[in-house]
Amino acid sequence: MPTSLPYPVRDPKSNRGALRARGRGLPWGARTYVAGIVNVTPDSFSGDGIDDTEAAIAHALAQLEAGSDILDIGGESTRPGHTPVDGATELRRILPVIAGVRARCPEAIISIDTFKAEIAEAALEAGADVVNSIWGWTRGMLEVAASHGAPAILMHNKRVAVYEGDVVDEVVAWLESQAREALAAGVPAESIVLDPGIGFGKTPEHNIAVLRELRRIVSLGFPTLLGTSRKSTIGFLTGKPAGPERAWGTAATVALGAAAGIDIVRVHDVAEMVDVVRVSDAVEHGWRPQDWRDRLQ
Question: How far is CA 88 from the centre of its chain?
Fold first, then answer.
């Protein structure tokens, strides 16, 4: 897809910079990165929420041990029909977990899953590195990200799943506008991560249409994230209940994402999805384990 953005359309495997945090760089296009979900809530849609600080820290560390490149920590469920929580509750849940993970694993890259600028600000000050907003640039969020030099994940969302035209056209146009706004504010292109928002403001047919055309989102030239893990569309297709039983269906979407050039997959089942992206990346990105030659002996 042609784009008028001041950042050229590029091959997803080409040099597009890196996600930079904690003195580390995750080069875009080198492989597919895995973001492990840490839901510090009692009401997560897939039953994985943990409303206990030490248990959440332990879960986060287990996600890192399983191969997660990024930890995505959130303190408010955004499942359909969720009950909103106030800022004080959200902070009470997430700040001790961020501090605990940072103390035990100083080099971990942590994203904060929130659409509230004040929560993002506090989380970044407590040791988070990346902002992940399900509503894109909400009021004040761009200023927070820019002032901290924090990469931002911007997700397409809609309160009602009604589209006047093609759903993919609208998603691509909205993501492009969000990226344009960030560039105008001085956010580097390599720090703008676009997420098509599977399961948010979309019917199952909409979700399938977006998954079919992921390359259009990748073709905008920015880093991308795909979050399909255990989502309801997978449940409708497989007949499996929310939870670990949807891992196989999730794996299919993760492989599709890697093949399309998606840069990050956000998942619950880290160990399983690390295997999926390793095999996919061997084909799509030429990735090999460091001890590849030894394994072949």
Answer: 24
266 catalytic per annotation: yes
24 is catalytic: no
SS3 of the chain: the string is CCCCCCCCCCCCCCCCCEEEECCEEEEECCECEEEEEEECCCCCCCCCCCCCHHHHHHHHHHHHHCCCCEEEEECCCCCCCCCCCCHHHHHHHHHHHHHHHHHHCCCCCEEEECCCHHHHHHHHHHCCCEEEECCCCCCCHHHHHHHHCCCEEEECCCCCCCCCCCHHHHHHHHHHHHHHHHHHCCCCHHHEEEECCCCCCCCHHHHHHHHHCHHHHHCCCCCEEECCCCCHHHHHHHCCCCCHHHHHHHHHHHHHHHHHCCCEEEECCHHHHHHHHHHHHHHHCCCCCCCHHHHHC
Structural contact between residues 115 and 138, judged by C-beta atoms closer than 8 angstroms: yes
Interstrand relation of 33-39 and 18-21 (parallel, antiparallel or unpaired):
unpaired
The residue annotated as part of the active site, out of 102, 116, 246, 266, is: 266
Among the residue ranges 74-78, 142-146, 157-161, the one predicted with the least confidence is 74-78
For residue 280, give the amino acid letter: S
Tell whether the model's pLDDT for residue 44 goes beyond 90: no
Supply the mean pLDDT for the chain: 92
Q: Which of 231, 246, 288, 295 is catalytic?
A: 231
What is the rounded CA–CA span in Å between residue 241 and residue 238?
A: 9
Is the model's pLDDT at 235 over the cut of 60? yes
The top-level CATH class assigned to 32-296 is: alpha beta
Nearest-angstrom CA–CA distance, 72 and 109? 9
